[in-house]
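Subject: Protein record for review, amino acid sequence with backbone structure tokens
Why sent: The fold of this protein is of interest and is recorded here as tokens.
Notation: Tokens come from a learned vocabulary of local backbone shapes, not from coordinates.
Attached in line: The record itself begins immediately under this heading.
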Amino acid sequence: MGMTWGVGTVLGPIVGGLLADSKLTWRWAFYINLPIGGLIVPILIFLIPKADMMAGSSIRKRLQNVDWIGSILQASFFTLFLVAFTFGGNQFAWNSPVVISLFSGAGTTRHHPCF
């Protein structure tokens, strides 16, 4: 998995840049990935073993083991952080109260033991 990530990180921008700079358009990157994905998905479905750590447990027991506070705080952090970066510099200045409030809100949700 690490090798695939590394090769994709190195070759992805190179191949994408070559496609974007040639007579082909950026859409060809998607056309190339479709057959590759079509070959890989069956391998992922049939050859990777299932890892069920709570085999035989009821749904109620599984839901009791979820860290609901941590999940809500993590979702809040990522939402506020991404909205701040999306609006900052585009709709609002980086030093505007809206962007500063979004970053501050993201910072306050970050203080949880699961992070």
User: Anything to note?
Assistant: The chain has two domains: 2-47, 59-109. The mean pLDDT is 85. Residues 2-47 form one domain. The first helix runs from residue 2 to 21.
